[in-house]
């Protein structure tokens, strides 16, 4: 399955909807979207990965790159993910300590609201 | 022992094909369904790493994968021709040192975390990553 990307604004959060496979072939499109959002002043990103079928280390690298970019503006990049096969990759690489990972968009929004 | 060999040019689009082939053969060889995601990801990581290395060092050379069932093991070997001085990721994550093209060390770390048995052999003439998983003893998926 190819990669589908969409995004919308929800209060201060920009929610990025990702569907399909994030790999060495498709990850550049996600990278371009994250860079574009940051360049347009969106510094609080929530990436919804509930419809992601596949994620490899190239995709992890793009998410880390996005996190570094938003942090340069005191922003945040957090994730929504409950799929064990995706979470396992974050655990193996130790990135569960780097990203905020939530079980739902609502849970992430609530946590983000508390942190304001 | 049955072996399938696949060579592909160093293009990111072909990594998906390699993943699909590896997963299909793993299933046919009798690797448990619960392990197929790990096979898919580990083979994808090894191929992605090889593609990136070839694009830097030798874009015209093909990458080679061998898939075999061997006495109850499903074994995959990904070989590239790019000179390698990579090292396995063995230290805690420091965000400041990571870039969004940090796949090399992490790719191998992911493979090591996924495959049941991994051997990484870097050399000036290229890297060979061999990994294997348990399969059914007769090399056939359960009916």
How would you sum up this structure, described in words?
Chain A has 116 residues and is α/β, with parallel strands linked by helices. Chain A has a single domain, classed as STAS domain (Transcription Regulator spoIIAA, 2-Layer Sandwich). Chain A contains 4 helices and 5 strands; from the N terminus they run E-E-H-E-H-E-H-E-H. The longest helix of chain A is centred in the middle third of the chain and has 15 residues, at 57-71. Helices cover 38% and strands 27% of the residues of chain B. Chain B contains 3 helices and 5 strands, in the order E-H-H-E-E-H-E-E. The longest helix of chain B has 25 residues, at 33-57. The two termini of chain B are 20 Å apart. The model of chain B is unreliable at 87-100 (pLDDT under 50). Chains A and B meet through helix 2 and helix 3 of A and helix 1, helix 2 and helix 3 of B.
Helices and strands in order, then pairings?
The complex is a heterodimer of chains A (116) and B (143).
Chain A: E1 4-10, E2 13-22, H1 27-39, E3 44-55, H2 57-71, E4 76-80, H3 84-93, E5 101-102, H4 105-115
Parallel strand pairs in A: 2-3, 3-4, 4-5
Antiparallel strand pairs in A: 1-2
Chain B: E1 2-8, H1 12-29, H2 33-57, E2 63-70, E3 73-79, H3 103-114, E4 117-123, E5 126-134
Antiparallel strand pairs in B: 1-2, 2-3, 3-5, 4-5
Helix pairs in contact in B: 1-2, 2-3
As residue ranges, the low-confidence spans of chain A are none
The CATH homologous superfamily of chain B is termed Histidine kinase-like ATPase, C-terminal domain
Q: What strand order characterises the main sheet of chain A?
A: 1-2-3-4-5
CATH architecture of chain B: 2-Layer Sandwich
Instruction: Write the CATH homologous superfamily of chain A.
Output: STAS domain
Q: Which structural class is indicated by helix and strand composition of chain A?
A: alpha/beta
Mean pLDDT of chain A: 94
Which features characterize this protein?
heterodimer; A: 116 residues; alpha/beta; Transcription Regulator spoIIAA; five-stranded mixed beta sheet; 4 helices; 5 strands; globular; B: 143 residues; alpha+beta; Heat Shock Protein 90; five-stranded antiparallel beta sheet; 27% strand
């Amino acid at each position: 399955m190819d990669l589908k990307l969409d995004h919308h604004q929800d209060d201060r959060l920009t929610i990025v909807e990702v569907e399909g496979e994030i790999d060495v072939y498709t990850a550049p499109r996600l990278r371009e979207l994250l860079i574009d959002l940051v360049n347009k002043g969106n510094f609080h990103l929530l990436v919804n990965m509930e419809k992601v079928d596949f994620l490899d280390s190239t995709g992890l690298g793009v998410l880390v790159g996005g996190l570094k970019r938003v942090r340069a503006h005191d922003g945040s990049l957090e994730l929504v993910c409950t799929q064990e096969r995706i979470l396992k990759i974050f655990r193996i690489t130790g990135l569960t300590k780097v990203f905020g990972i939530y079980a739902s968009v609502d849970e992430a929004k609530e946590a983000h609201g508390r942190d304001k | 022992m049955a072996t399938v060999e696949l060579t592909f040019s160093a293009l990111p689009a072909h990594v998906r094909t390699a993943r699909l082939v590896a997963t299909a053969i793993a299933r046919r060889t009798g690797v448990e369904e619960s392990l197929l995601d790990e096979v898919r990801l580990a083979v994808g990581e090894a191929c992605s790493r090889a593609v990136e290395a070839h694009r830097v060092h030798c874009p015209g050379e093909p990458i080679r994968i061998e898939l075999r069932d061997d006495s109850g093991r499903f074994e995959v070997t990904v070989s590239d021709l790019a000179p390698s001085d990579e090292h396995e990721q063995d230290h805690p994550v420091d965000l400041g040192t990571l870039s969004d093209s940090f796949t090399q060390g992490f790719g191998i770390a992911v493979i090591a975390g996924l495959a049941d048995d991994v051997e990484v052999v870097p050399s000036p003439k290229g890297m060979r990553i061999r990994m294997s998983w348990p399969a059914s003893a007769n090399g056939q998926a359960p009916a």
